[in-house]
Amino acid sequence: MDCRITARQVLPGIFHLSDRMGMHSTLIVGEREALLFDTGYGLDDLKKAVAEITPLPYQVILSHGHHDHACGSFQFDQVLLDEREFPVCEKYAGSFRKRVWDQATAKGLDLSDWREEDFLSRGYGHMQALEQEVFHLGHLTAQVIRMPAHTPGSIGLYIPERQLLLSGNNFNPTTWLFFPEAQPMADFLSAMEKMLALPFRQVLCSHGDAPLDRARMEDFYRGITMENIAAHALPQPGLGFGARVYGFAPAEGMWFCFDGDKLPPAWREALMKNHPFPG
After folding, report:
1. In 183-225, where does DSSP find H-type helix?
2. May I ask the CATH class of domain 6-171+198-214?
């Protein structure tokens, strides 16, 4: 398996790693240790990419258990994640591998490093419950931010020395809150408030190429109101796992898709009145 990972240093000691499927992992390199956040789709040699950046010992931590963040975990001896994510990881990083393979084939990626059955048989490595709240890496610190929203055990990381937030999937240029394990909208808004309470200046997203200014997240959060959802959210048929998915733009250049049934009752009533879901 070739490396085929594109690595870019976005801040001193902060490397954003992109696989050929367009998924990002983030490597935080201190003076004594490093920390890898997420493992991508697993088609490319992420372990080799890390070794090319640093010889330091490192741990691997997952923002959550979905396949695009966890399928590469088999490359490592151990991955840490919130214990509530164990069943999510087992489901998506296990049974969704065929979906990953088909998507890669449709994109025309060179998969000659693999036999399909070998990729499909790879698991998700050895999961261990994330108990540590702070990782001291040597002149860089990674603080775990536990914020159930996108999934029950979703986390982010805050790097105070760089005033940088790693938001996982609780905030992206396109944010999804409609998977079956997604938490209610009220929990999502609480997660946003928890992130915005931190004194970060930039946010680095799992599905974004470069850091965004804090103001972008603030604009996104301010746009998620009952009035905006009732007026602008439109059904997105075919998106989601049987959920009544709606989407709208809370801020310029941002998109938010959510399960209409997980709104607070008054919000849901206002939305369904203006934009009933087809069928």
Report:
1. 185-196, 214-223
2. alpha beta
Other beta carbons within 10 angstroms of residue 173's beta carbon come to: 15
| Environment class of 3 (CB within 10 Å of its CB; exposed 0-12, middle 13-18, buried 19+) | middle
Domain-wise residue ranges, the chain: 6-171+198-214
Which amino acid makes up residue 156? Answer: G
DSSP element (H, E) containing 59: strand 58-61
4 vs 250, more confident: 250
Q: Which two tokens stand for residue 19?
A: 């696989």
Q: Decide: 83 and 129 in contact? Cβ < 8 Å.
A: yes
Query: Phi, psi (5° rounding) for residue 113?
Result: -70, -15
pLDDT given for residue 148 in this prediction: 96
Q: Is the confidence at residue 35, as pLDDT, over 70? A: yes
H or E element in which residue 80 lies: strand 79-81
Does residue 261 have a pLDDT over 80?
yes
**Model-wide pTM > 0.85:** yes
Note the maximum CA span of the chain: 58
Q: Which two tokens stand for residue 41?
A: 């789709």
Report the C-alpha gap between 175 and 255 in whole angstroms.
Answer: 6
User: 202 pLDDT band (50/70/90 cuts)?
Assistant: very high
